[in-house]
Fold:
Amino acid sequence: MNIIKVLRRQELNDGYLSVDYLLSGHVTLEGLDILSQRAYTITGHQYLSTCYQIQKPENIQITGILQSSVIQVTFPAYSAGYIEEYLSALVNLIPEEQHANSFVQTLFDDVKMILRSNLQRKNSKNLNVDTLSHIFVE
Structure:
C-alpha cells in the first residue's frame, strides 16, 4: 500500500500538526495489526464502522476508520521533516491486496447489510408524498 496524497494539513495548538493522508487501499483489521504491531485502541464507531487510534513513539498518533482509505496523523511540528518517510515506510508494510474473508469481517459485513436494509425499510414506510428524505449509511 502507498500514500497517494495529502488531503489536509492543519496546525494545532502546542506545536502539533494534523495531516490527512489518502492511501492506495483500505485499512482492514490485518492492515491495522501491521500498522500498530497489534497495539491499537478502538475508540468508537462512526458511519457503522470501527474507529481506531494508534500511538507511536515520539508522540505520533494515527487515527482513522476501518475500511477507509484515509488516515489522520498527528505529530509534533519538529518531526515534520521525516514523518512522511516514516509513514511511507510503515504503510508499505501493508500488502496491496488484502483478503478480508475472516469470520469477523464477514460478520461485520452481514450486520452492516441488515442495518442498512432495516433503515431503508423503515424509511420507505415513513415517507410522505411531499417530503423526500435520504439516509446515507456508509
User: Anything to note?
Assistant: The longest helix spans residues 103-125. Residues 4 and 86 are 15 Å apart (CA to CA).
